[in-house]
Design brief:
The complex is a heterotrimer. By secondary structure, chain A is α+β, with helices and mostly antiparallel strands. Helix content of chain A is 34%, strand content 22%. In chain A, the strands form 4 sheets. Chain A has a 7-stranded mixed sheet with strand order 8-10-7-11-9-12-13. In chain A, strands 21-23-20-24-22-25-26 form a 7-stranded mixed sheet. Chain B has one domain: 3-Layer(aba) Sandwich (Rossmann fold), CATH 3.40.50.880. Chain B is 25% helix and 25% strand. Chain B starts with a strand and ends with a helix. Chain C has a single domain, classed as Phosphoribosylformylglycinamidine synthase subunit PurS (Mth169, Chain: A, 2-Layer Sandwich), CATH 3.30.1280. In chain C, 32% of the residues lie in helices and 25% in strands. Chain C is built from 2 helices and 3 strands; from the N terminus they run βαβαβ. The two termini of chain C are 13 Å apart. The chains are: A alpha+beta, B alpha/beta, C alpha+beta. Chains in contact: A-B, B-C. The interface between B and C is medium-sized, with 22 and 13 residues.
């Protein structure tokens, strides 16, 4: 049968982002053509953004279990036990497309959305991190300024500290900036909520902002490439109200004081349709009945279609035990929040929508949540990355001058101008502030510290998707370990170009296998995550595969935490781990030779484990005072950062690497599995023998002290000189 | 000694102030809801930081009309200790309990960073444990913290010695480049003429424990603890 | 009745937003701009028996809440609207 016979034309299908094949599956399953509302509801839930139809099969390869895991993927966020009855809840999510169109609001509502995911788990959000990618400055300043302001505007107002993240500038993000927001929350493990619509007859309460015609088909929009029409879709971008969300947050925290609540679910992409369907979909046989006429509205003349598909921000769905609605409504009234009973849980396995008495839609829940046919795409390896003839590279003429240029590179320079625009202290829990390897927050009333970071060097992923993904996981773990904390678990955000192109799908496959391999080897489960596809523009500019790894770790006594900056004069400075000629994909190659080429550094996961174990053992034994991951920019940049963060210089002999190690690779190569540590002189022999027992190389670089970084006869730069280069790299105020 | 910490919708330093009062200082803590006019016998009322009512329209503009504010006004008139921190300072200015206003930072940017404050009045209930000219290290976190008053008000404040804290460098020198937000005369905190209502933009509740980067803020809480009784009987 | 209220920073108050906007305009070639002040525009719809009554009420709104007399000045216009014009 032809499409037109079913009263649906291609244009309408495009609008709801469904293919003709998908439409056929719907008709077969319903045994009738869907009406317009049903088609819209299925369209949003079957979008890539909601259904993961392209990536789902691949994502099953990722390890998600572990002894400490309390909640893996499939809920609003993942959760891991910290012991002492505490659980840490966390998730990362992309808001790339909205941020490309309207940077401030796109980033702000991204923060708002990820906060609600954590709140829905019953947890109080304690920290935010943001992993950002832009095109080069100054061209991309509008994106950069807007996104930074939007993150601050939302996070500062709601009173959750922004403690970390990363910013990279690369040509491939000029049209498609990436904004990935991560939220970390804390809850008593016993109070952890799950968004399951259980108990026939229990009531569905909608709370928060009134519903307007915001972002209808936003989820479908996120699943399309950006084109010239995108600016015409401007209404698809919503305006955040962090004040309202703050009230929503506090009210939801008060909900846990009662036993009247069965579940809380965030309203995000695809609005009411998706949150009700997901909530019911997690309980076999459950259904829901909604009366759209009871949904509080911001605008007049809204149709059931508008109400069901609206993506208005700052709304939550609460499943309340039957008969207890008044208790819950009272809590929301205290916070001057509008709430309304809009429906109830049923046992018919269908989502039924009525407008007053009239039924306007009825679709099986499983068709909505699991019905989208998985897309089986074919991957083909892309053209190999340009090779690097390392022998053709001239050695650095002046190491000091090269270091200053590296420190001023936008990808390596100080993030101070960004950090100071974010409230990173509210909550009285930030015991390691942003700017180092990972931030750390304490669990108040205990000695537990939670370390957190995001990490991904996408240049490596571009050159080798599999190895790049492994390196991203390893580097995140190193960031956590550098604070003295044990890595616990991961949330990931896979940002990719258009997977309909075989080479992009291949990158996606390779990325997932690389991540899976590194996670298994380092014993790190992935407990939540998000996939953002179609990050490319009509002009052909595709982003690098960018699998952002968000990681949390734990230290049982935060008084033993480590930071990167040198602490005292007269300490020994040591390089732990071994260096190779790893210049492929390095920042040095880009800054000094204007090349993105070669293979990323080789990663030996067994060695990575050994080095990590050594650092944690040494930290627990009190043998080291500071630790810093040695990665982007290489050893010399890491050393300079230790000086800059601590405000203390270092003196050592000239560094003459033994062949075949080249001098540029020794200073600026990005071999993984390395740390710079400082140790009191009396502890150094013990540290050295500990390293030998772990079969890890250790080399003395010098002694802390003075106001310069000096390698005798080779390099001498004052901390002040380095600071001027480092702090000016973003070109004035962000 | 009982501290009352006021909670408006949008307040976020309430829990931090409460934590310091209760867990660090060991004093009695009472949260006061904005809709509730009863101050519940508190000896010192803290108006904490945040974005009360979203700071929509202007910072503190709507908060000043909350029922709790009327009681606080009467409490201040009777000589009770009122301490506005960050958003609380903005609310005190809007409500007329302190002169002047706080406008957008000169940089137009939010600023969250450590600042140095020179203490110019050590004879107040809020600063009795500090030395005059002592330099305190206390963080700020605001987008609208630039203190403004008309020239007549400003000179009256200066003549009466109502400026309590000024942004300075590590040595205590009041310099233009140690001013993080463009405040007139580097003003970070002022007191009313009677000495019982203090407003300050920096956050002492964020530096009351060493693991958070410093303990200078605790001095102010301790000062209130020691002095409250005397002020109330005076 | 509609009141169209404009709130602007007082001339003596430093207006960093205004200064920045002026610099931006200069960069775009609008060198003739000598000063910019950035304020707020507020629209209030109200029921009133007469224009005089409305004027009094709006004035009270401005001085009590909408403007801060320490840093801001305000002025407003009133406009009658035909019935049912709202929305």
């Amino acid at each position: 049968m032809k499409l037109e016979d079913r009263n649906v034309d291609e244009r309408r299908l495009r609008e709801v982002a469904l293919t003709a094949d998908e439409y056929r599956v719907i008709v077969e399953s319903l045994k009738r053509p869907p009406n317009d509302l049903e088609l819209g509801m299925l369209g949003v839930l079957w979008s890539e953004h909601c259904s993961y139809k392209t990536s789902k099969a691949l994502l099953r390869r990722l390890p998600s279990s572990g002894a400490a895991v309390l909640q893996g993927p499939g809920e609003n966020a993942g959760a891991v036990s910290l012991g002492n009855g505490w659980a840490v809840v966390f998730k990362i999510e992309s808001h790339n497309h909205p941020s490309a169109i309207e940077p401030y609001q796109g980033a702000a509502t991204g923060v708002g959305g990820i906060l609600r995911d954590v709140i829905a788990m019953g947890a109080r959000p304690i920290a935010l991190l943001d992993s950002l990618r832009f095109g080069p400055l100054p061209e991309s300043r509008r994106h950069f300024d807007g996104v930074v302001a939007g993150i601050g505007g939302y996070g500062n107002c709601i009173g959750v500290p922004t403690v970390g993240g990363e910013v990279y500038f690369e040509d491939c993000y000029a049209q498609n900036p990436l904004v990935n927001a991560m939220c970390v929350g804390l809850v008593r493990a016993n109070d952890l909520m799950r968004a399951r619509a259980e108990g026939t007859g229990n009531k569905l309460l909608l709370v928060g902002a009134d519903t307007g015609r915001d972002g209808i088909h936003g989820a479908a929009f996120a699943s399309l490439e950006l084109d010239e029409d995108s600016s015409q879709r401007r209404p698809a971008v919503q305006v955040g109200n962090p004040f309202l969300e703050k009230c929503l947050l506090e009210a939801c925290m008060d909900l846990s004081l009662t036993d009247a609540v069965v579940a809380i679910q965030d309203l995000g992409a695809a609005g009411l349709t998706s949150s009700v369907a997901e909530c019911a979909g997690r309980v076999p046989g459950a259904g829901a009945k909604i009366d759209v006429s009871r949904v509080p509205r911001r605008e007049r003349g809204m149709t059931p279609y508008d109400v069901m598909l609206s993506e208005s921000q700052e709304r939550m769905l609460v499943v309340v035990r039957r008969g207890r609605e008044a208790d819950i409504e009272r809590i929301f009234e205290t916070w001057d929040l509008t709430s309304a009973v809009i429906g109830e849980v049923t046992n018919d396995g269908h989502l039924t929508v009525v407008d007053h008495k009239e039924q306007v839609a009825r679709v099986p829940i499983q068709l909505l949540t699991e019905g989208a046919p998985l897309r089986r795409l074919v991957g083909l390896p892309p053209e190999p990355a340009p090779a690097l003839d390392i022998d053709a590279l001239p050695p650095p003429a002046d190491i000091g001058a090269a270091l200053l240029r590296m420190l001023a590179s936008p990808n390596l320079c100080s993030r101070g101008p960004i950090i100071r625009r974010y409230d990173h202290m509210v909550g009285d829990a930030t015991v390691i502030p942003p700017g180092g390897d990972a931030a750390m927050l304490r669990v108040k009333g205990t000695k537990i510290g939670i370390a957190m970071t995001t990490s991904c060097n996408a240049r490596y992923c571009h050159l080798d998707a599999n190895l790049g993904a492994q390196l991203a996981v390893a580097e995140a773990a190193r960031n956590i370990i550098a604070t003295g904390a044990q890595p616990l678990a991961i949330t990931d955000c896979l940002n990719m170009a258009n997977p309909d192109r075989p080479e992009v799908y291949w990158q996606l496959e390779e990325t997932v296998s690389g991540m899976a391999q590194a996670c298994r080897s380092l014993d790190l489960p992935i407990v939540s995550g998000n996939v953002s596809l179609y990050n490319e523009s009509a002009g052909g500019a595709a982003i690098y595969p960018t699998p952002v790894i968000g990681m949390v770790g734990q230290i049982d006594d935060y008084d033993r935490r480590l930071q990167a900056g040198f602490k005292h004069e007269g300490d020994f400075v040591l390089l732990i781990g071994s260096s190779h000629n790893d210049l492929g994909g390095s920042e040095y190659l880009k800054v000094e030779h204007d090349m993105v080429a070669g293979r990323p550094p080789e990663l030996d996961l067994a060695r990575e484990r050994a080095v990590g174990k050594l650092i944690l053992t040494a930290a627990r034994a009190g043998l080291i005072k500071t630790a810093h991951d040695c990665s982007d920019g290489g050893m010399l940049v890491a050393l300079a950062e230790c000086c800059l963060l601590g405000g203390i210089g270092m003196r050592g002999p000239a560094l003459n690497p033994e062949p075949p190690l080249r001098i540029d690779a020794a200073f600026f190569g990005e071999s993984p599995s390395r740390f710079i540590v400082s140790a009191p002189s009396r502890a150094t022999p013990e540290l050295q023998s500990l390293a030998r027992r772990h079969h890890v190389e250790i080399a003395l670089l010098g002694l802390t002290g003075g106001d310069a970084l000096e390698l005798e006869g080779q390099l001498k730069l004052t901390v002040q000189e380095m600071r001027e280069a480092w702090e000016g790299g973003l070109g004035g105020p962000a | 000694m009982k501290f009352g910490v006021v909670v408006f919708p949008g307040t976020w330093s309430d829990r931090d102030c409460g934590w310091v009062v209760d867990q660090v200082l060991g004093a009695h803590l009472q949260y006061l809801w904005h809709k509730d006019a009863d101050l519940k016998g508190c000896d010192c009322i803290i108006l904490p930081g945040g974005f009360a009512y979203g700071d929509y329209l202007r910072t503190g503009a709507i908060a000043r009309f909350a029922p709790v504010m009327e009681s606080i006004g009467e409490f201040a008139d009777r000589g009770g200790l009122v301490w506005g921190i960050c958003n609380g300072f903005q609310i005190l200015c809007e409500s007329g309990l302190l002169p002047g206003a706080l406008i957008r930072n000169a940089s137009l940017e939010y600023r969250c960073e450590w600042t140095n404050l020179v203490v110019e009045r050590a004879d107040l209930a809020f600063t009795s444990q500090c030395d005059e000219r002592e330099v305190l290290r206390v963080p700020i976190s605001h987008g609208e913290g630039s203190y403004f008053a008309d020239p007549a008000t400003l000179s009256r404040l200066e003549q009466n010695g109502q400026v309590v804290f000024r942004y300075c460098d590590v040595e205590g020198r009041v310099r233009p480049n140690s001013n993080p937000n463009g405040s007139l005369h580097n003003i970070a905190g002022i007191v009313n003429s009677r000495g019982n209502v203090l407003g300050m933009m920096p956050h002492p509740e964020r530096c009351a424990e060493a693991e958070l980067g410093g303990t200078d803020g605790l001095k102010l809480f301790r000062s209130v603890m020691h002095s409250a009784a005397q002020v109330l009987t005076a | 009745m509609i009141a169209r209220i404009v709130v602007v920073p007082k001339p003596v108050v430093n207006d960093p937003q205004g200064v920045t906007v002026r610099q931006g305009l200069a960069l775009l070639g609008f060198g003739e701009v000598t000063e910019v002040r950035v304020g707020k525009y507020i629209e209030v719809r109200l029921d009133a028996t007469s224009e005089r009554a409305a004027r009094e009420r709006v004035d009270a709104m401005c001085s009590r809440l909408l403007a801060n007399h320490v840093i801001e000045d305000y002025h407003f216009e009133l406009e009658h609207e035909s019935k049912g014009a709202m929305r």
